[in-house]
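Q: What structure does this chain adopt?
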Amino acid sequence: MINKVLVANRGEIAVRVLRTCKELGFETVAIYSEADREALHVRFADEAYCIGPPPAKESYLRGEYILQVALDSGVQLIHPGYGFLAESPEFARACIEAGVIFVGPDPETIEQLSDNAAARRLARRLRLHILPGTDWSLDDDELLASADRIGYPLLLKAAAGGGGVGIRTINSRSELEIAIPTARREARTTFGDGAVYLEQLIENARHIEVQLLADAEGNIINLGERECSIQRRHHKLIEEAPSRALDPSLRRRILRSAVRIARAVGYIGAGTVEFLLDPEGKYYFLKVNPRLQVEHTVTEAVTGVDIVKEQLRIATGRNLSYSQKEVKPRGWALECRILAEDPFRNYAASVGRISRLREPGGPGVRLDSGICEGLTITPYYDSLLAKLVTWGETRAVAIVRMRRALEEYQIHGVMTNLDLHRALLNSHRFFGGQFHTRFLEEQFVPTEPEEEDYLAAALTTALLDWRKRTGAQTQTNGVSNRWKMLGRWELLGGGDL
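A:
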């Protein structure tokens, strides 16, 4: 009898998975490092076990420890979330051998699709458009020769990479000669594999991805596309569904291409196929993510499908709850990733104790959060604190609701990118859908505050706090944070936000 699930993750995704498990009546087990003893996901679970010191390689990446906890606590399923062990074929195989169900694709599928160069070869066999690049593990001289043949600019990527980690823009042969050894070392350290490959860089491209679900009976459905073009250094920041860049004909072709890839490998579970869309409307296969995605929330918002619930159904041998005809996306959804980082300090990660937290709510607002008041944010893990999602009947309504929700959201004690999101959501170009994957880096430059700006911000904050305590109506000229006092952002090329 299957009645107990271990969530092999932390933070907001662990909380999100635990919630669905509880709705399905499963008993739940959480794991945590010594740094996460007071974390929110620990409080949500029926049982929780410490698995080691704070560094991930000594805790959340120790598959043998996690599997032993599962066996000792009588768990039948392990849900890996995303990141950590979610794309580890070794961990998936160890679970199967121990008689525990791994919630995800089989190990062989993970091995095939987690190798980005191998996935490019698969797409080529299916005659999908792929960007000019290298599909095999080449030595340094071969990479340099291939780069001269393909032409610059290029992207240098880790073959086993994911999440935007380890991607470098290369503009010349001399840059590539310097970057290759560094990229190999980083790939080996991060992913355990030093293989790298090249891919042609498309200027002003848009990032489109398709959410898929597939069961063991061969039923495969798509849940539509998401756009993830608002990025910083290849890390997604804002996602939305559907994409404003696709017309009905192009949408049908992209969705069909994604399903073809899944069918070709006998995919089972939840997965995502990513594409790049050039300014002329031609799309190129990028990669497959054989796991749950961070931004699955926007797809859930427009389709009403609980993707985690479907993952658990599929893992336990049941068929999909929906046919393709029953999937009818409605409205528009946006997601803002709330990160503990300081845009004024080159997006440096921020640590500290959350002293005050006010979370947004209201119509069309969803918050997947892993934080609470009193929680200490440590330097050991990803800076993602929460995901703020809004839904509306139209894109404009979703944007207006996101603006309201961002204004309501307050996190004190650590620096966050909330003000950056507020600035982006007030950008005319974002509202008009006129952006691409380098929009943030090319159009927005944070203004470095001077010492007197910090003093002014501190005085304003103290004044506002006094006003709240006394009920006084203090005139602030609309200034409520230092971002606004500093003019928010300078938009390159002129114009206002």
